[in-house]
Please model this.
Amino acid sequence: MKEYFKGISKIKYEKGSDPMTFRYYNPSEKLGDKTMEEHLRFAVAYWHTFGHTGADMFGSAVNKRPWFEYSDPLDASLAKADAAFEFMSKLGVKYFCAHDRDLYPEQETLRKTNEGLDKVIDHIKGLMKGTGIKMLWGTANLFSHPRYVHGAASSCNANAFAFAGAQVKKMLEITKELGGENYVFWGGREGYDTLLNTDMKLERDNMARFYRMAIDYAKEIGFKGQFLIEPKPKEPTKHQYDFDVQTALEFLRAYGLDGYFKFNIEANHATLATHTFQHELRVARISGKMGSIDANMGDMLLGWDTDQFPTNVYDTTLAMYEVLKNGGIAPGGLNFDAHVRRGSFEDRDLFYAHIAGMDAFALGLRIAKDLLDDKVFEKFIEERYSSYNNGIGAKIVSQKVTLKDLEEYVLDMKDAGNVSSRQEMLENILNRYMFKKQ
Model:
C-alpha cells in the first residue's frame, strides 16, 4: 500500500520539546479508573482532515494532498481512505467520524452514488479490520448540494425532504455496517433567513416527522447506536431551529422525541450562540443529554465558524470538568471537527494540529481531575446554596410554601442577608490549578 505520510512514524508521548510528540497525552496513563485514551476517546474528522482544500471565501485551494490528484472519484475515495487510516494509525487515534459525501462524492443519480459508496465501504471495512480503528459516528451531508438551498428536513420543497430521507436511510445502514457507536443529525441549513417567506410551524413539524422516520428505520434495521443532534445557532442561515442545547431540547420535548436523542456539542457553535463551551456542556449534562463533543474553537474576533484546532486550555479544562462530572462521554467521544489554517498547507501540519488539540485536552483533563478531586468549586457552591438545606429554603425546595407563606416570612425582615459570590477569588484559584507545574 502506498505511504502518504512519509518520514512520519507513530507519534509518541515524551517529555521533550519535539512538536511531533505528545507532551501531555499519555494514552495508557490511568487517571482514576480510566486511562487517558478511555477518558478522551479522540476521533479524527474525515471531512476537515482529508477533504479540506484550504479554500475560503477570499481565496482558492492551497492544500495539495496526494489523494486529491486522482481524477476518477472511486480511485480518489479509495486513496483518501488509505491516507486516512495511515494518518490515524500514526497519530494513535482509535476513532473517525464521517459524512456520507466525505466517503464518496455525489454522482448524477443517487443510485450511482450509492453503488460507488458501497465499494468504498467494503474497502474501509478492510482497513478497519487491519488497524482496529472504529467509527465513532456517521452522518449525512444534507447541506452542501444545491438541492438543499432551502434546507433538508425543513425544506419548503418535498422533493428535497425525500432526498434527505434517502441519504439518511443509506447512511444509517452504513453506520450500522461499520459498527458506528452514534449517528449525528447536523442540520446545516435547517433554519430561515426571513419569516416573510417561512412557515415555521410546518418546517418544525416536518423536522419532527423526519426524526421519527429515522428512529423507526433504525429500529427496523437493528441499529443500536446513540442518536445525537448537533446544535448550531446560525451561519449559513440567520436562525437555525437547533440554535443551542436549550432550544433543541425544547424542540425534542415539544414533539415527544427527547427520549431518543442526546447532543453532539461543538465549542465553536457554543460561542456563535453567545454561550461558553462549558455552558452548553453544563446544560446538556444536567439534562442527562451529554452525548458527544466536537472539539474545536473559534476566533472571538471573527463572527463565523472558523473551526480551529483547540489550544485554549481554559476551555479544555472546563470542558473536561463537565465530562468528568458526567461520569464520562462514552459512547460519544472528542471529535476534532477542525481544520488547519489556510497558511498551514503542508501534510505534516495535519499532525501538528491534532497533536496540539490532543495535548490541550489531555492537559485540561489532568487539571479538571485535580479540581474535582479537591472539590474546589463543589465545596464553595454547596455552601453558597446552603440556605436551601433548612428553614424556609428547604420548604421552597419541597414545595411546602405558598406566596402567602413567603410574604409572612419576609414581612418584617430588614435584610435578606446576601453574601459575596467571590468570583475573582474563584478565578484566581482556577489560575493556580492551571499554572502549577504540570
Summary: The two ends are 41 Å apart (CA to CA). Residues 13 and 50 are 24 Å apart (CA to CA). The first strand starts at residue 30 and ends at 31.
